[in-house]
Amino acid sequence: MTVPVTFESKLAPVIGDKSARPLAKSFGIETVGDLLRHYPRRYLEIGQLTPLSDLELDQHVTIMAEVRSVKKFPFGPNGRRTRTEVLVTDQSGEITLTFFAKIYALKPGDVGLFSGVVGSFRGKLQLTHPQHDPIGDRLARGVVPIYPASASASSVVIERCVGMVLDAVEDLPELLPDAVRDARGYGDVAASFESVHRPYSIAEAMTARARFRFEEAFVIQAVLAQRRHAAAAATATARPSRAGGLRDRFEEQLPFALTDGQREIAEVIGAELATTHPMHRLLQGEVGSGKTVVALLAMLQVVDAGGQAAMLAPTEVLAAQHHRTITRMLGDLARSGMLGGAEDATRVRLLTGSMGTRARQESLLDLVTGEAGIVVGTHALIQDGVEFADLGLVVVDEQHRFGVEQRAALVDRAETRPHTLVMTATPIPRTVAMTVFGDLDVSVLAQLPAGRQPIQTTVVPIADRPAWLDRAWQRVREEVGRGRQAYVVVSRIGSTDEPGGDAGAEESPTRSLLELHEELAGGPLHGLRLGALHGRMAADEKDTVMSRFAAGEIDVLVATTVVEVGVDVPNATVMVVMDAERFGISQLHQLRGRVGRGSEPGLCLLVTAADAESPSAERLKAVASTTDGFELSRLDVSMRSEGDVLGTRQSGFRSSLRLLSVVRDEDVIVAAREAATAVVAGDPALSGQPALAAAVAAIEASDSAEYLERT
Predict the structure, then answer these.
(1) Is residue 11 within 8 Å of residue 20, measured between CB atoms?
(2) What is the pTM of this model?
(3) How is the chain split into domains, by residue range?
(4) 494-507 confidence digits (pLDDT tens)
(5) Phi, psi (5° rounding) for residue 194?
(6) CATH dotted code for 12-177
(7) CA angle (202, 203, 206) in 5-degree steps
């Protein structure tokens, strides 16, 4: 009895081990479905030959060309072996194909596909022993698909394997409901796979590709629609505002006026907290736009209503910074049970993984008894043994640093579903927000508070102008001489570490934190008070360094990217970023947001040894050209791969994408969101769409990225 071939079938039994092994090694293709979703990257029409003039040395190519001549030359002992040189041509150029073994008959006038790595012999381009295939029955179709290929798995071989699979496979899963397909004029899944892999015209292939691009967006939006539906069905404890409570008293004593944006979003959040529908909101804002104040107003409203609020931060440095900032801003309102505490005051507790036993026990006790209305912590908040008296609000800072599981783990600490506010200072383009954070309502805080000072950003190209680095250190000394402070940011801690930027920059020598700290202390910054801060330091040691820097006891802080977000020292006016080409656009924008936070303008110096014409240098020029984080985010996204954009935390989404671009396909994503929302509203469990339900479950199961380790 023959076993039917399905989408989930292993590939090897269908096409043979010899063909399956290189596909698995080169592309991770293991099943029939994997191969069918390995879509052609382009198509050639018969008679429209590939321009040979575009070929580059060492490039793996598949070309379509016509044989001009075939010549054989004896070589080896007694001339018993034969080298065959086949000259092929098109409308733009020619290339020699060299064979050292027996080949199929090729004669002048034949048109074929040839795949191999472009090499050079005596100054002329050649393909050595390329795989080749006659046009053959493709003439009837008029179109040749060209696949993403490798040296061990050429486009011709992949095309042949796909044909075998298409002829054998049965019962293909249909992920698009009939109504959705009909509304958009798409064919069924079997016909669409035929059209995308064996089209009779390029227009037919493009229609099929559009269907599968929409399908990818639709499945992702179905995941997010289910999450939104589940959240809508849940109930939360209403946390209405209380006249004359902590929130009102805090707002009255603020030494500055809230911006219109802060006030508007605070009112929206306040209204949502007052309902029994759990708030599920993303607050994205420019660096320094005042998100923490908005979050604190929300937390105080919850405390006024008898609940507790927990703020989850990605690093211990940031958690400690938030704890200090909130405690300082609240003043006597945070001193419940203490001398000088205000009436009805609350307590603000810190909880991190490396706290001492006594301090940890005090925090845990205040949480379980309800004495602490606000707790700030790292992933330690979601570990076993942490209990709340009445958790009413979860605030997640720097949302992109956490996976969905981490957010859910804290939400699950509450007996009733708490309200959720997630924040990011990394502006997110709309297409990405709809794909990655599509289960959240989004608020944007773009207006900066009055009094925020401008930040001048300058690239210091030490490869071309080494003297500029000396001037950079002079500027640091000048700022310190005026009573100001400075940051120096490096990409790695010690000599054995890999550089830590995220830009994928070209290799260049770097100086570690330890090396640079010693060099500066004995050289250009001799006599200044230098401090060091990095993620491997003990928590109390990091806290001590940051406290001393905030108190003005350290002139220059040499640090890794632990200072990237949240660190607030208004007296710091200058930042020097070493090996700046090793950091991404958004990361550099975050870093420079640490200066210019007081009454003086900020200066950010991006030191780089990158070539002036390199992509890295272009990124740095872009950062220096604008302080508009939303503009930079659009540029950042346009320069990154889809995997980088979606990030590790969305591993399921990333692995499901083949044709969809979250950068370019906004119209597709919008349409898919509307369609998926309607389908899930009518059938929340997708019981009538088993194939779609299975695809959604697979994405949810794969979205299990580990917590991002501390820098």
Answers:
(1) yes
(2) 0.69
(3) 12-177, 455-626
(4) 655 555 444 444 44
(5) -60, -45
(6) 2.40.50.140
(7) 85
